[in-house]
Amino acid sequence: MANVNIRVDDALKKDTENILSALGLSLSAATNLFYRQVVRYGGIPLDLRVSAPLNPTREDYLIIGRKILRDLQEESVKNGTDSMTMEEIDAMIAESRRERQAKKA
User: Fold this and answer.
1) Nearest partner of 26 among 39, 16, 12, judged by Cα
2) Same domain for 63 and 46
3) pTM
């Protein structure tokens, strides 16, 4: 088995170890996982997070926003609301609220 020596900023290493610990991974296990994924996918496809980034940047918010938008667009195609007007969507919401209120009564 090969040994890998890298130099990283002390604070970056500590932050990384804290996140990996929350994920149940050691630095060595995460490095092996990274190497295997790079070979398997021919790139860097990993997105392992505890939750949100510790210090989110504008780019992080843009990535999250784009994913939410993409998910909403896919869902609207699946349920047939992608071609509805706002008035039709408002009517659908109002009907759903009326049905919910009727169930409570």
Assistant:
1) 16
2) no
3) 0.43
